[in-house]
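Let us practice reading a record.
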Amino acid sequence: MDQQQEGIGIKIYTTTPPPPPDPSIYPSSPTTTAPGLAPVGSRKRRAVAKGVQKTISKTSMLVNFLPTGTLLTFEMVLPSVYGKGQCSAVTTLMINVLLGLCTLSCFFFHFTDSFRGADGKVYYGFVTPKGLAVFKAGLGVEVPKEERYKLRLNDFVHAIMSAMVFVAIAFSDHRVTGCLFPGHAKEMDEVMQSFPLMVGIVCSGLFLVFPNTRYGIGCMAA
């Protein structure tokens, strides 16, 4: 009997990686960065811009009651005072000083008025019970003696309303409330959702009852 030897054959296959895809066939999509991996600087800038935009959008109708430039000055100086967001004792003090100066300017400017002299120039002064007192004396200009240049109840109403409007706008900024009322961010956010609107409605009604006829510093007649 012939013995037949059968061999067992083993084949070894070597796997080779597929070639990279052709860029012309599969165009690559632009690389996107995950929101959580955004640079810290860009996140901070977006947060500040969002806060300013939120403040202005909430209180845009109230700006008409303020002297021109007061809110702009406040929004320009506040980032320098606020710094890196650390509400230290110095930062809180500087924010209080800034709020006080801007509020006083809103109150003071409503007691000013102006007139055009014979030379065509505009002169500003402070209204008093006796009439208009020009800021710079000895100009040789005849100051009008009309009744409208005397101090009236309307001036106090407009000055108080202007101060209230500025406080409502300033407190809508999280940088102010975060330093002045630490730990009460949620409560202040709930209050400021409706407080600026209430102030705007009240001031609009009072402006109808007490119309403004002054052309003072930064104040236009309604």
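A brief commentary: The first helix runs from residue 40 to 58.
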